[in-house]
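Consider the tokenized backbone below.
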């Protein structure tokens, strides 16, 4: 992140407003880099990638019980409470406090990874996404993989890491 961009963001806050962001959309420079990475990784058609970038909301908190739907939501809630850096449910990305600074800063590779999940939710639908995600995770465990290895082997996670890796190669 360039220092001038960060200073502009900090200075653009309302005077006297406490800079303790809990919710925000992607900053313009994040949008450009993430969109380029999504398109470079060919995760979905460009218009679907653009829609995900436009709709994505980043929240610095754990989802509330009322926001959790079904088993997948319950697993997501538990994962975020225990070990995950972030969890995506639809277009909302819930990020652990230690990764979401008071100034709104979030590691760009984490943003790209989670926006990839927003694309996947939109592309495949919530039920299909959650079903396949849990099925593939459980299959990894049944093959004898540990928790972390089973998580890393989930095709949706492999695809999201590919998007985050594309940040280094994107011209944006």
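A designed sequence for it:
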């Amino acid at each position: 992140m360039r220092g001038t961009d960060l200073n502009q963001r900090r200075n653009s806050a309302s005077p006297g407003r406490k800079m303790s962001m809990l919710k925000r959309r992607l900053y313009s420079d994040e949008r450009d880099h993430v969109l380029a990475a999504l398109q470079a990784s060919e995760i979905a058609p460009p218009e679907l990638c653009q829609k995900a970038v436009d709709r994505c909301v980043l929240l610095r908190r754990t989802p509330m019980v009322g926001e959790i739907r079904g088993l997948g939501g319950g697993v997501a809630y538990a994962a975020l409470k225990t070990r995950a850096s972030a969890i995506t449910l639809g277009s909302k990305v819930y990020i652990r406090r230690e990764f979401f600074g008071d100034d709104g800063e979030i590691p760009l590779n984490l943003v790209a990874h989670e926006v990839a999940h927003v694309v996947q939710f939109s592309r495949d639908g919530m039920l299909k996404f959650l079903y396949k995600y849990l099925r593939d995770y459980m299959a990894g465990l049944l093959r004898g993989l540990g928790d972390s290895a089973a998580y890393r082997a989930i095709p949706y996670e492999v695809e999201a890491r590919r998007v985050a890796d594309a940040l280094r190669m994107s011209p944006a």
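Residues 1-20 have pLDDT under 50 and may be disordered.
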